[in-house]
Amino acid sequence: MGMKYEPAPSTARTLLKTEFDAYDKLRTELESKYTDQWVVIRGTDLVGVYAEFGDAAREAGKRFGRGPYLIRQVAPTNWLERGERDWKARANR
User: Fold this and answer.
1) pLDDT tens across 60-91, in order?
2) How far apart are CA 19 and CA 48, in angstroms?
3) Residue 65 falls in which region: left (phi positive, over 0), alpha (psi -120 to 50) or beta
């Protein structure tokens, strides 16, 4: 009888499960309002939205120290949508 291999869960994914779940629940709203911006999520709360990663990181660090919290750039779920949006932006320069 062989042993079944199961990879260990990602440490970040395990530590931030609540935050990743909160992002997934908010995904549609975030993508419609904040595409390409950075969000900070702690627990189930959307803490803030920032234009730059550095701003999000500074604010999260100031408020929560070393964490845990999730800093993530909002991007369309569908990569084709992102490509089309980027192409239109370049075409309209």
Assistant:
1) 999 999 889 999 999 876 665 656 666 666 77
2) 13
3) left
